[in-house]
């Protein structure tokens, strides 16, 4: 009797497992970097309301607010990856991140009054530059 076996050999299965392992070793760090970048963007999104409030305060008062209360926003702005959004001296907005980005690292937004309005610079802070949006990289 002539019988044929069907299925994969052990070596073929080991090759497939090795290929999947190599792909996973490349994909997982890239995905983690992508998720951290999206969390940093969440901080900028939450700071959007503070930017509007600080801009409005400056337009009406002629000076920068120094606290969240003075700017007319909540003292407890938090998010999934954001520990706090705080207005400090001269209308500077500091976004502090939790462990989903890098625990305690910050992104600082500084407003500057120009004839065209208020422009915002987000190039300072302790968040790693490669995690920031392209317009916030030094």
What features would you describe in this structure?
The protein is built from 2 helices and 4 strands. It has 138 residues and is α+β, with helices and mostly antiparallel strands. The protein has one domain: Glycoprotein, Type 4 Pilin (2-Layer Sandwich). A 4-stranded antiparallel sheet has the order 1-2-3-4, with helices on one face. It starts with 9 loop residues before the first helix and ends in a 13-residue tail after the last strand. 25% of the residues are buried.
Structural class: alpha+beta
Number of distinct beta strands: 4
Query: Can you tell me the residue ranges where pLDDT is under 50 for at least 5 consecutive residues?
Result: none
Topology as a string of helices (H) and strands (E): HHEEEE
Radius of gyration: 24 Å
Roughly what is the average pLDDT, rounded to an integer?
Answer: 91
| Residues in helices, as a percent range | 40-55%
Sheet with the most strands: spatial strand order = 1-2-3-4
> Can you identify the CATH class?
Alpha Beta
Biggest sheet character: 4 strands, antiparallel
Give me the CATH fold name.
Glycoprotein, Type 4 Pilin
Provide the number of structural domains: 1
Instruction: Specify the CATH architecture.
Output: 2-Layer Sandwich
> Distance between termini?
75 Å
């Amino acid at each position: 009797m002539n019988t044929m076996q069907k299925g994969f050999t052990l070596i073929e299965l080991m090759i497939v497992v090795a290929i999947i392992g190599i792909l996973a070793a490349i994909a997982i760090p890239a995905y983690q970097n992508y998720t951290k970048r999206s969390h940093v963007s969440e901080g900028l999104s939450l700071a959007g309301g503070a930017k509007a409030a600080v801009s409005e305060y400056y337009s009406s008062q002629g000076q920068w607010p120094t606290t969240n209360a003075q700017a007319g926003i909540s003292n407890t702005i938090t998010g999934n990856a954001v520990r706090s959004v705080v207005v400090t001296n001269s209308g500077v907005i500091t976004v502090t991140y939790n462990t989903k980005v890098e625990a305690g690292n910050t992104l600082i937004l500084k407003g500057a009054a120009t004839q065209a309005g208020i422009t915002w610079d987000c190039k300072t802070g302790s968040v790693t530059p490669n995690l920031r949006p392209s317009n916030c990289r030094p």
